[in-house]
Amino acid sequence: MTTTLLHIAKALTPKGEIPDAAILIRDGEIETVGPRSDVTLPGGAEEILAIDSIAVPGFIDVHIHGAGGRDVMEGSGEALSAITKKVAKFGTTSLLATTVTAGADDTCRAVAGVSKYITTQHETSEPRAEILGIHFEGPFLSKERRGAQPAQFLQLPSAEYLERLLRAASGNARILTIAPELFGAMPCIDAARSLGMVVSIGHTDATYEQARVAVAHGAHHATHVYNGMRPFTHRDPGVIGAVLTTPELTAELIADGVHVDEVAMKVLLQAKGAGGIVLISDGISATGMPDGSYMLGDQEVAVSGGICRTADGKLAGSTLTLDRSLRNVVRLGVPLADTVRMLTLNPATVLGIEFKKGVLRTGADADIVLLNDALEVTQVWARGIPVA
User: What rounded mean pLDDT belongs to the chain?
Assistant: First the structure.
């Protein structure tokens, strides 16, 4: 692999902004990042001048179901390759393949396929996002707050059922979304946490007290906050009240302007601060595609004006890309550095990989996104490989 030096107007690192910066990439990693005047161009290295661009870490999407016309639940290498290639063009360089509720056999088949793909994804030099693991969105979800999740496949939490899913995942399970009010939820949360999984509260009708019990058992994340949740009221704050007032809980946010009103987004952003939000896409197979009919798991979803709905009118994921999420949140008045953190360092920290992903620092993977003044993606490197 060639050695490349990027010369950019500004780089956003964990220590702040570096003006007139240089990033030296060697063998897929960042070897050096600092002021251009302090970085020597190695012999034989290529220097890329992008002095009108801002360099930020590659985006990490911990909740995505598909893209490019393909769905995670297909579980095939062809489908997963199409998804990862498509989102890389929009700045997403790492992701968790996210399931939807389905029958046990179908879920295990899909998860086994994702796990197989993960073991072989670096055997090619094709530029694409890296699948870091699996996010199980279901089947331990509330029927009352199931959203587009198929009701017939929902299950009460069971450590035995979870064990079957984890066997299929072959060590690649990363996040479990669960409704903590369901019978059997606490032993299931305990089992997931004992294996190092992130437990996320979601698709839930939990009260404030029930959500707090889940936190006491180790839940420390919340799935697409406001959506699939018991509504907040001043006498019944519910799970949303717990998210807003519990520092240990990081909160996923779909910032497409459809799933969450701007005022509600501002409330969440102000309550959680820059370190407490993880911007996600919740993207489905329609991401990066024209309007039409697409699949989410085994159900058909109609996409019109970029908005995804089931036959009965329920929102069913999104077509959001994380670069658009970045622009939307900045338009709310959030500083660029804070917004970038919600797409990079925060999700990496949730997954415990903040020294390798989500940062521009020596030794981190060379996952780099260049932005212009309009915060549009102009170039992407995925583990040092430029994305066309």
Answer: 96
- Which residue has tokens 């990079």? 344
Kindly indicate the confidence band of residue 164, based on its pLDDT and cuts at 50, 70 and 90: very high
Q: Is the pTM of this model over 0.85?
A: yes
Under a CB-based contact definition with an 8 Å cutoff, are residues 104 and 143 in contact? Answer: no
Pick the catalytic residue from 61, 205, 256, 282.
Answer: 282
Q: Among candidates 63, 111, 55, which has minimal Cα distance to 371?
A: 55
| Of 226, 262, 256, the residue nearest 325 (C-alpha) | 256
71 is catalytic: no
The answer for residues whose C-beta is within 8 angstroms of residue 257's C-beta and 6 or more apart is 328
Residue range(s) in the chain whose domain bears CATH number 2.30.40.10: 4-56+372-387
Q: Residue range 178-195: average pLDDT?
A: 97
How many Å apart are CA 37 and CA 347, to the nearest integer?
32
Strands 292-296 and 299-304: antiparallel
pLDDT at 86 over 90: yes
Q: Is 300 exposed, middle or buried (0-12, 13-18, 19+ CB in 10 A)?
A: exposed
d(CA 162, CA 56): 37
Angle at 172 between CA 169 and CA 176, to 5 degrees: 80
- pLDDT tens digit sequence for 322-355: 999 999 999 999 999 999 999 999 999 999 999 9
Q: CATH 3.20.20.140: which residues of the chain?
A: 59-357
**Domain 59-357 is of which CATH architecture?**
Alpha-Beta Barrel (3.20)
The pLDDT score that the predictor gives to residue 44 is 87
The 3-state DSSP class for residue 222 equals: strand
If you classify domain 4-56+372-387 with CATH, what class do you get? Answer: mainly beta
